[in-house]
């Protein structure tokens, strides 16, 4: 019995020195998880206007958020305003509608590239997974307001149209024409707008 206890004590000591390996995925294994597969719907085709404004709460405004892996932003949407296609390379976003309705959506990654959309009402919450292209659109008859919480003190934002067509060092119109499968003159006109 004493030998068994001594052996067990040695195993515990060895485990404490060596440690137990932990297995897990370093990132999400899928783009999203929907509670209902019927939640998808086609986006509205109304004319888009300016969205309104942002009121950020991040490490830039409150240095005490440094290393806490969180930031927030209040987004005010004008009538039919949009927060155009963008992505946050370092954060998942949880959006809560304060005043709405607000149509929200994101695009799944390759190969499916499906656009998932939903119209939210006041009090509804929606999650935009890290790195996926997403947008919001005021589809109501007045202003809309949302609060977004992001899982990073510095989530970053890449506005797709600005990044592609308004890059400070122009992306070659040959490359863009091939990528978008259009004439180079179309790319020149788009780049001129940005």
Description of the molecule:
With 194 residues, this protein is an alpha+beta fold. The chain folds into two domains: 118 residues, Jelly Rolls (Sandwich), CATH 2.60.120.10; 35 residues, no CATH class. The chain is built from four helices and ten strands, in the order αββββββββββααα. The strands form two sheets. Strands 1-2-9-4-7 form a five-stranded antiparallel beta sheet, with no helix packed on it. It has a five-stranded antiparallel beta sheet with strand order 6-5-8-3-10. The longest helix is centred in the N-terminal third of the chain and has 17 residues.
Jot down its keywords.
five-stranded antiparallel sheet; single chain; Jelly Rolls; 21% helix; 194 residues
**Quaternary structure:** single chain
Given as residue ranges, the uncertain stretches (5+ residues, pLDDT < 50) are 7-26, 36-49
Principal-axis shape equals globular
> Which CATH architecture of the largest domain is right?
Sandwich
| CATH fold call of the largest domain | Jelly Rolls
- Which CATH C-level class of the largest domain is it? Mainly Beta
Strand order of the largest sheet: 1-2-9-4-7
Compute the CA-based radius of gyration.
23 Å
**CATH-level-4 superfamily name of the largest domain:** Jelly Rolls
Distance between the termini: 80 Å
Level of helix content? 10-25%
User: Total strand count, please?
Assistant: 10
The biggest beta sheet, please?
Answer: 5 strands, antiparallel
Structural class: alpha+beta
For the record, the count of structural domains works out to 2
**Element order, helices and strands?**
HEEEEEEEEEEHHH
Q: How much strand content do the residues show? A: 25-35%
- Quickly count the helices: 4
Protein name: Germin-like protein
InterPro entries: Cupin_1, Germin, Germin_Mn-BS, RmlC-like_jellyroll, RmlC_Cupin_sf
Binding site for oxalate: 83, 88, 93
Subcellular location: Secreted, Extracellular space, Apoplast
